[in-house]
Amino acid sequence: MREINEMLKKKVSELLENGTADRIIGWQAGEFCYDVTPAVMRKDNLDELFYNGFCGANQSKYLIQESLEEGKVLALLKPCDTYSFNQLVKEHRVNREKVYALGIPCSGMLDVDKIKALGITGILSIEDNGEEIKVATMYGDKTCKRTEVLQERCKVCKGKEHKAYDELLIPDEDAPEVPNGEDRFELVNKLEAMTSQERFDFWRGELSKCIRCNACRNVCPACSCRTCVFDNDNSGVAAKSNADDFEENMFHIIRAFHVAGRCTDCGECSRVCPQHIPLHLLNRKFIKDIDEFYGEFQAGEDDTAKGPLTAYTEGDCEPSIVMEKGGEA
Amino acid sequence: MQVNETNTVNTEEKEFTPLIVAFCCNWCSYAGADLAGSSRLSYPANVKIIRVPCSCRVNPLFILRAFQRGADGVILCGCHPGDCHYSTGNYYARRRMTLLFSMLDYLGIEKGRTRVEWVSAAEGAKFSATMNDFAATIHKLGPNRKLRDLRCEK
Questions:
Q1: Tens digit of pLDDT for each residue in A205-238?
Q2: Domain spans, chain A
Q3: Which residue has the higher pLDDT, A323 or B96?
Q4: Distance, CA of B118 to CA of B84 (rounded, Å)
Q5: Mind listing the domains of chain B with CATH numbers?
Q6: What ipTM does this complex have?
Q7: How many angstroms separate the CA atoms of A206 and A249, rounded?
Q8: HSE on the CB side for A289, CA within 13 Å?
Q9: CB atoms closer than 10 angstroms to residue A213
Q10: In chain B, which residues have their Cβ closer than 8 Å to the Cβ of A314?
């Protein structure tokens, strides 16, 4: 990771020097090494640029605003970010001309909560190379296994291939290995196999934790309406907080529905949820249904293909298929 | 006091008549309902029809909001696939509703509470039969408890 960090800094200053772009969206270190925030930087404060195992944030969404401004912006895209990027370009939300996309390698991002759950606290710095993670803490050096502390979404990694870029920092073939992709529908299948009442209880338990901070909506690269239906006073559903359990359900059904067929399964919604609600399970249910009913589809694979909800075939299944197919009553 | 309360609950259960919201497209199903009426075919009075320009005008929020406001079942009627007044509207509606219904099932809501039926302007008999059947299904399922605004509960 250290070499990649050095290479990245060199490459970025080179690109800003020669005028390819005039600013960059990168990551800035916060108070702690795991407290990294995306930030726009220019030549004069480029030394703040930072890339480590906690730079999980998907930067594609910031490009919507950035590509409206003067000049070209340099975007650092991890392989999974390029799916969201493609999707935004397809929807004409990001002006491709105004973005210079530099593909950077990623070998899975770390979840600081999981590290802390292992009893490693007072983290000062992290050395992540290969299978073993070395953590320097206030109480001495500790180690943990990489697979134990990977973010949830990285366990089902889509692979190391960048789907869109102007330049790659390291060719995809030479990039470090990515975690082996597990079956991403495993939990969805498990839920589907439950009885209807069990599912209801599971989701009540999860969704009732929602504090309606809207972080899942605000971070989602697919959720990019200028005025959200939940902020529109004329929509009849605008609300600052969930008044009852119906509104908890409604917000999350509609949030997931509005990105159905466009969600690239980047997992940002679950990453940012302060209540740790597994929101990706709602998105994955839609992805799984779309795959089953209308054929395999991966949003953001390219920037031209029509999405499954903006297309149809005459022989599509009828909605009554849910009666036969869905989980037990 | 307690005796009274149990009494009211009991009578309410006995008298359960489902409230059903039917979204009908202007060109086929609404005309179908009209034909059912002028042919003197009966369908339950607690089916409340909301006329929409096309089945694809119905967005998932409409369906959820109907439940929120106390509906026990929601049915969407449109032109048969291929006969849409706007050529393709019902094809899109079909995909959306399939995904929405599947999601409701995933969240543990009873499957039978939502339905899509294609009813043409000439199918007054089908309209009345569909509504009678749907009302019976919802009656069997009982009142909608899982997907509603609990502030409406008395």
A1: 999 999 999 999 999 999 999 899 999 888 888 8
A2: 2-109+159-174, 112-149, 186-325
A3: B96
A4: 10
A5: 17-143 (3.40.50)
A6: 0.91
A7: 10
A8: 34
A9: 13
A10: 81-82, 91
